[in-house]
Amino acid sequence: MPRTRSVTSSVLGVDRRTVLAATAAVSVSAGVGYALRPTDSEAAPAGPPAAAPAPAAPAREAAQAPAVPAVPSAPYTKGTTLASVAAPRAGSGYRRLGSAAGWRRVVRGDLAAPVTGRAGRRTTLAAFVQLTDLHLIDSQHPLRLEYLRAANEIAWRPQEALTVQGAVALVERVNALRTSPVTGAPLDFVITTGDNTDNNAHTELEWYLKVMSGGRITPNSGDPRHYEGVQNSGVPLYWQPGSTTRDAYKQRGFPHLDGFLAAAIREVRSPGLNLPWYSTVGNHDAMPLGCYAHGDPYLAEYAVGGRKLMELSTVEAARLQQSISGDKDPRGEVIRDLLKSHARKARSVTPDERRAPYTPADHLRAHLDPAHKGVGGPVGHGYTAANLDAGTQYYTFPIADGVIGVSLDTTDPGGHFEGSIGTAQLNWLDATLRAHRDAYAVVFSHHTGKSMANTRPDPARPAERRHDGAELTALLGRHPNVLAWINGHIHRNDITPHRGSGEGSAEGGTFWEISTASHVEFPQLARVVELVDNRDGTLSIHTTLIESSAPHRTDHTDLSQTGLAALYRELSANARFDGARLAGDAKDRNTELLLRKGGRR
Which phi and psi (to 5°) does residue 169 adopt? Predict the structure, then answer.
């Protein structure tokens, strides 16, 4: 059995994290009884990957040594939603934010009964942070669909110009966490689960990589001196922060803020994550607007051009939204014709080649650029040159001793925002989990099982069958070493137990599907995940939600980087009033999720 990791050994051996980052897909830590081969980070091997090599004798001896229970002197709650949460104050109309009592931890025994005294016995397997649905937005991009706001209020967000400031504050929060909240173990890495960008634009991709790895970001495109978007258009459909226009948002109490737009496009500085981080692709990263297949030259030219449509009638907006929601326009023909027919209504903006859509190959090359390695690395952030050669965006990586991570690509480049998975990737996943049956596995994807119903063929692989979420869920359930499937997409906290058919197990395999809310909608959360062995025949997955470092209370005169990050949260709370629904029930937030031990053979 691979060695578990105690707090004592982790603190004294912090270099382990540096080694993992430096070697990317190969674990070479001292005493590790399990290692991924470099080829396991490659895309879809021609045949099943070989089993991991047997450990050397010293590693076996280390694995047999008794582990020190991973019990901190007290739970570490600072900066987590266990301590406090941002919440709108009582009242109607525009509500200011304040601090409310934190969310308690809920123990869930759906898949295994909790055993008394486990906190004093447990040892840490791994601890990491999940970020999801950052949706870094080039809010002045000509192809944005703000005008759908005429038919649906939540189609446009008044906080969209501040996504970079909000994401940097989230990075600051992760960097400030001293330890993982329950076990006190150091955090191993950070992973995103897709929709890191919003509109598949090169501007957004550059901002995302600098937010995560560190650097200076100017969240502006087009005119370098002025904002040119819907928020200074005078159109009362949108919040006009610096105008006297009595827009739809000011009627609800949104503030008048002189200088807001100038501050929003000012340079931002990100410290970058101080941990290794890995990237997973989402539909908004893979396709223009998150739903249209690449290839239409008119849309590509419109993206970088000098015209932007900002208004649409309610009837036309409803018709376009129905086309998108109903998956009736995967190649963008409806929106192309609409933009052509409204060319005279479009407003002039400054053209910008940086707004061009990026391809999957562009996405991979950007991640592989050493300039974006950051402090923690690794180069590629999970992706390798083999992915680039094969044209794939899925891979494995070492999480900790005896634990592997698998990052999937559930986007369908044929179009639409729902997902699926191709046969080659499904077979690769099955073979990978078989080859590493002696390690625990955590699977990451953008889409949830219930949001994978788009089985349209991939234009690059038209003969390949696509598989839905039910098929992926069934495959994971056949592998007892799978502990969790962690994803996003639905912008809502939701945790679901799954009972699989098992493989060589009379009781069947079980795993938890953990879906986390976005960082673009209130309550703007990320999640810390801790895997522990309770040493009583059960395992626990502890999940703890965190907010950004921005203060809960805002001062509307503070337009500094921190002040804008706080305003980003407050605006999101007032943009839509279903924050409680997106936060999920108590059982979907701060939890302890139990599993029977014995998933590995």
Answer: -65, -30
Backbone angles phi, psi at 5, to 5 degrees: -115, 120
Which residue bears the tokens 């993206």?
A: 303
Which tokens go with 10? 């982790």
Greatest Cα pair distance in the chain: 75
Local structure of residue 39 (DSSP, 8 states): G
What end-to-end distance do the CA atoms of the chain give, in Å? Answer: 9
Question: Sorting pLDDT into bands at 50, 70 and 90, what band is 580?
Answer: confident
Q: How far is CA 422 from the centre of its chain?
A: 21
Q: Quick one: pLDDT at residue 434?
A: 96
Structure tokens at 449: 């099982």
Give residue-wise pLDDT tens across range 266-321.
Answer: 999 999 999 999 999 999 999 999 999 999 999 999 999 999 999 999 999 999 99
Stated as kind and residue range, the H or E segment containing 529 is strand 526-533
Closest CA to 87 of 569, 591, 434: 569
Q: Which two tokens stand for residue 253?
A: 């109490």
- Quote the crossing angle between the two packed helices 469-477 and 423-435, to the nearest 10°: 10
Residue with tokens 């990052």: 407
How is 532-584 classified by DSSP, letter by letter?
A: EE-SSSEEEEEEEEE--SS-SS--TT--SHHHHHHHHHHHHHHH-S-HHHHH-
Question: Using 50, 70 and 90 to split pLDDT, how confident is the model at 109?
Answer: very high
Contacts of 129 (CB under 8 A, 6+ apart): 174, 177, 187, 189, 190, 191, 275, 526, 527, 528, 529, 546
- Average pLDDT value for the chain: 87
- CB burial of 430-441 (b: ≥16 within 10 Å; e: otherwise) equals ebbbebbbbbbb
Which parts of 230-372 are beta strand (E)?
A: 268-270, 277-278, 307-308, 347-348
Phi, psi (degrees; rounded to nearest 5) at 272: 75, 155
Beta bridge partners of 406: 396, 443
Residue 342 tokens read as: 């409204």
**Mean pLDDT along residues 177-202:** 96
Give, as one character, the DSSP assignment of residue 136: B
Find out whether 346 and 339 touch, Cβ atoms under 8 Å: yes
Matching residue, tokens 């016995």:
121
Contact 580, 85 (CB under 8 A): no
